[in-house]
Amino acid sequence: MAKFLFTMLPANDLGLPTRLVPIARVLADRGHEVAMFNPAPAPAKLIEDAGLINLPMPSRPMPAIGGDMAQASAAWDVEEMFAALFSDVDTVRAVTAAHVDLVRDYAPDVVVDSFGLFTCMAARIVGVPLATVLQANFHPGSDGFLWWKGERPAGLPSPAPAVNTVLAEYGLPPVARSVDLLAGDLSLIVGTPETDPVSGSSNVTHVGQIIWQKGNAALPDWVAELNHDRSVIWVYSGNPRYAGAAASNPFDSIVVIRAAIAALGNAPVQVVLTTGYQEVPEEVGALPPNFRHAAYVPGLAMAERCDLMVHHGGHSSVMTGLSVGTPAVVIPTSTERESNARRLTALGAGEIAMPLEGPDGEKQIDVADFRAKVHRVLNEPGYRAKAQRVAESMKRFGGAQQAADRIERFGVGMG
Questions:
Q1: Are 364 and 391 in contact, with CB atoms under 8 Å apart?
Q2: Domains (ranges, CATH) in the chain?
């Protein structure tokens, strides 16, 4: 048996743990020793619900990761996003040291990571084999978040100087781009070549959709009791306020909730609003009578029950809808999420309603445009037909089982 440590960027939303928890659960069920690391509240709840070990924070002090969130949310690609967050060498040094402690203390045979730059660095520093599980636009072989705009502009910022300073302190060679560290010794891409294209020269394996849902998961009774004569729209916002009520953040998805209330409140539809183990901010006020809120519902079951998804463009949200053939209207809240949304619309499985920044810095939506797109996707059968075609094509890939098989073979070979 092998020992696996699953890590990720510790953001307080469910996108990254949703793709790692199913693989970790399969390996644990096969008798391997498995632990995860994400101390953020919402991921911690998902990990606990799956019955997996979530390691505590290392004892070494680790500074909070800040940076320029506006630049990060508007970044051309991962490299520019990381430049906005990880260009301070003291921060990179301290966070890397904490992750080195994490890997050394647990002593895994393999680190399995999704978008955790510092764990990828730590695995190389400690000399532990690294498997990465990524969406395509996180992989160094992708065309970035703004792929539809052509070649990457010259001169965009990079955190490589800070990263290379720290790598040199551990006796490791420099990298040209920090994103190159995300390519593991084994690289798995969530999705398929048509949903998540990567350069043909990249050594990757597509594994199809990976979405967490417990085997005995069931929707709440009130969902089952919804009127079958009226359309059901599932609105998933993700984290409405990353910084809480005290401050706004460019990645906030409260715009999704506001748009849904403005366009769908009291309309002849039934709306299920979920927030990924987050509360609805008090500033939203009372929900319309045709809305019901739940902090969390089983994603695949809810996607199968609804007629349309409305969400913020997270990759796992896109995969959830496509895996069961449900179309979507996406309100993307960053360039990474816009990238995912544009891949979805290129497949004909939905529409994008782009938010604009208002005078107060908060994202706003053209309510009439959004309402029209919801009506169009609900009532034109071509969207569902194309989403269902993608769902059928995804069945050729093995999902979490295939990913676990490959990681298991990799780990046993290394152990």
A1: no
A2: 3-209+397-414 (3.40.50.2000), 221-394 (3.40.50.2000)
∠ CA 149-367-292, nearest 5°, is: 110
Distance CA 375, CA 148 (A): 27
DSSP letter string, 191-254: B-TTTS---TTS--EEEE------TT----HHHHTS-TTS-EEEEE-S-S-TTGGG---TT--H
Q: What are φ and ψ of residue 379, in 5° steps?
A: -105, -10
Among candidates 304, 250, 313, 244, which has minimal Cα distance to 279? Answer: 244
* Range 156-160, long-range pairs (CB < 8 A, 24+ positions): 156/76, 156/77, 156/79, 156/80, 156/83, 157/71, 157/80, 157/83, 157/84, 157/87, 158/79, 158/80, 158/82, 158/83, 159/79, 159/82, 159/83, 159/85, 159/86, 159/87, 159/92, 160/79
65 versus 274: which is more confidently predicted? 274
pLDDT at residue 414 in the model: 60
pLDDT, tens digit, 9 for 90 and up, residues 202-214? 899 999 999 999 9
